[in-house]
Structures are given as structure tokens and as C-alpha cells.
Amino acid sequence: MRFAPTHRPDxxxxxxxxxxxxxxxxLAEVLAALVFMAIxxxxxxxxxxxASLAGVVGERKTxxxxxxERVLNEHIITGAFRSGGSGLIREGIHxxxxxxxxxxxxxxxxxxVTVQVIFPVRGRDYDVRxxxxxxxxL
Length: 138
Fold this sequence. Notes:
Elements: H1 15-21, H2 27-78, E1 85-91, E2 94-104, E3 110-121, E4 124-135
Antiparallel strand pairs: 1-2, 2-3, 3-4
């Protein structure tokens, strides 16, 4: 038993039919594509901007942590942590403000020493804090 195809290709197509098949997009299709692009492009650009900011902040936090560790170690070694203090350190082309403070810990022989490093990124200040406990008898 043989089945005949339900759709037969039109072997004698007219010139009007072939012209319609070659036409471009309609105005509605072009406008819909433009509206879609007007929505997607700003969202993608904002995503790239946020990712760039996160990368810059992450890189500066790494540097600020290194600065905080260096300041904390210097103040502990020299004993200057007892008086507290603040200052400015330049690391490459960036400046980092630091402040160091000492406060008593719940154990009477310990002190909590904290260094806070503040750094700007694109007009906004961020900070890193690094703390350690020291024996008060030192």
C-alpha cells in the first residue's frame, strides 16, 4: 500500500510568488527588534559596569588588607599600638588612610588592637578592618 504525499511542491511558481518570498522584514518586525535591543543593551551595560566596580573594589581591598597587616605588625613590634594613631600610606598610585585603636578585651590580660584602612573607589569610601589580641603584660 502506497501513501501519497499530502504536500506537493509547486513546480510552476509564478513570478509574484517568488518576489513575495524574497521580501525583507516588515516595519513591525524591525520596531520589535529595536524595542528588544533598547531593553537588553542598557541592562547588559549596567551589568558590565557593576562587574568592573566589583573587580576594582576587590583589588583595592586586597591592597588595603596588606596595608592593614603591615601597619598592625609595625605598631605591635614598636609598641606604638598603645597610643593609637592614624596616618596615610601610599601604595602605588593609591592612598590608604589608616587608624589604629586599642580597647580592653573581656579577659583582663588581653587587649584588642584594630586597624581600619579606608580607601576610595569611584567617589565612595570602603574600608577593611584587621584585629588581633595581645597580652596586656607585654
